[in-house]
Design goal:
alpha/beta; disordered N terminus
């Protein structure tokens, strides 16, 4: 919790001065490939992708895809936040304070949701680590709305996504920084980076709550991005690069590493409406 500064007895401090004192004197300290998208047939190939980190029967371990493997600089002082917005609540975020370590137990969000429209169905199972302060039901609804958005991987009826509590082709996992770092090994994600390992898109709650500076206040946009990016790997898509300054960033670009002159973009097919 941020410290509070109380003025001396009987002193009066103007609102502006108090604000400066709060940030400067009582700041919150925080602990501190490219391949063009292919058709949805990549899903079938993803189970044997060399980027999977699931152990094989022979005991070998492949390296999972990750949104980054470099150390991320985090400001030592952050501005005081006003709290979650309605958009945050819609994504399952109930607090802007990140829980560093949950129970370590992944809980499948119960229930099933049918796939909308027409097209090949991909079954998705949503799992949330217990004890991280996230509304799992709201998170699952956000996941499915993103995947079935016309701008998402199911654009034009090529794919449609159904949620299940049983066997699934893709798992979407939201975990604390500590647990996500463990799940993404052998990559060093520092708990601040997401990855795809096997058929699981592992999202760190650190980024789900805080997003990245390049998206500004649009935390929802970043959530669409990181989910679409990691599920894109599970569907068989590789990384892409920024085409040039001012261009729209591909969703398979490692945007968490920085936009490199590109404009932020959360969607595989931006601008699509059907």
């Amino acid at each position: 919790m941020p410290r509070t500064c109380a003025p001396g007895s009987g002193s009066r401090i103007a609102l502006a001065a108090a604000s400066v004192l709060l940030v400067a004197g009582c700041g919150v300290t925080t602990s501190g490939t490219a391949a063009a998208p292919s058709t949805s047939a990549g899903l079938a190939a993803s189970s044997s992708s060399p980027s999977s980190s699931s152990p094989s029967s022979s005991g070998s371990l492949a390296i999972p895809e990750t949104d980054d493997v470099e150390t991320v600089d985090v400001p030592s002082v952050l501005a005081v936040d006003s709290g979650p917005t309605p958009a945050d609540f819609a994504a399952g975020v109930r607090s802007l304070k990140v829980v560093q370590t949950g129970t370590g137990r992944l809980v499948v969000v119960p229930g099933a949701v049918a796939a909308p429209g027409r097209g090949r169905v991909v079954k998705v199972r949503v799992e949330v680590e217990a004890g991280i302060g996230v509304d799992a039901t709201a998170f699952a609804a956000f996941v499915m709305a993103t995947l079935n958005d016309p701008r998402g991987w199911g654009h034009g009826g090529t794919l449609r996504f159904a949620r299940t509590g049983g066997a699934a082709q893709i798992r979407v996992v939201l975990a604390s920084p500590t647990t996500s770092a463990r799940l993404c090994r052998p990559l060093q994600t520092f708990g601040k980076l997401s990855c795809r390992t096997g058929n699981a898109a592992v999202l760190t709650s650190y980024r789900w709550v805080k997003a990245i500076p390049e998206y500004g206040s649009d935390r929802t946009g970043y959530r669409h991005y990181v989910l679409s990016h990691e599920v894109g790997h599970a569907l068989g898509h590789g990384h892409r690069q920024c085409a040039g300054r001012g261009a729209v960033a591909p969703v398979m670009m490692q945007q968490t590493k920085g936009l490199k002159g590109c404009l932020p973009n959360p969607w595989p097919y931006p601008g699509r409406t059907v």
